[in-house]
Amino acid sequence: DVKVTQSSRYLVxxxxxxxxxxxxxxxxxxxxxxYRQDPGLGLRLIYFSYDVKMKxxxxxxxxxxxxxxxxxxxxxxxxxxxxxxxxxYLCASIRRDGYxxxxxxxxxxxxxx
Amino acid sequence: xxxxxxxxSHVSVSEGALVLLRCNYSSSVPPYLFWYVQYPNQGLQLLLxxxxxxxxxxxxxxxxxxxxxxxxxxxxxxxxxxxxxxxEYFCAVRAYSGAxxxxxxxxxGTKLSVIP
Lengths: 113, 116
Known about the structure:
The complex is a heterodimer.
Chain A: E1 4-6, E2 10-13, E3 19-25, E4 31-38, E5 42-49, E6 56-57, E7 65-70, E8 73-78, E9 87-94, E10 103-104, E11 108-112
Parallel strand pairs in A: 2-11
Antiparallel strand pairs in A: 1-3, 3-8, 4-5, 4-9, 5-6, 7-8, 9-10, 9-11
Chain B: E1 3-7, E2 10-14, E3 19-26, E4 33-38, E5 44-50, E6 56-58, E7 64-68, E8 73-78, E9 87-98, E10 101-106, E11 110-115
């Protein structure tokens, strides 16, 4: 019954490392999203994609990039991880028309030392 | 543009008491509204959604929400709180994101604590 999966639940990286977070959905959704969640700040949108090879910046794209080579897969990349990127990262997907619910992955808790 | 505002970042109730979590929306078109719940260290899961049918919407775990157009509100309620209801709750509205595509815009969340 799993619909959105994320490659890791917990991840520990060092400052300056390149970090890949992968997300896969099995619902044939057009739209996919990456959020970060920090206490008191709610969900903040990093990037989203509404089609293969298409990407749009969200509210806080600095320090991140994304890749969407296949419809079901959306990757978040931290080119050079920094301690202020320690956070919970959530992937989500939804049908293009947005009438149904948005499905979330279980989240990846990333710690950058 | 569509948006939602959740009043109260933290709500505490006693076990067995009424749960009321507030959400007000802003939308230039008839809104599609959602409530999600997030348990610690998990992703968000859908509690209920309003899609312009009945104004009183029932969800999972005994929660319900009433759409009130005159008040632009979509408050979440549960008659009797259980310890297992302790979680963070997010209100969301369907919003246009460009290129014929839609997404959900989320409120900042309300953390519910249940006191034994």
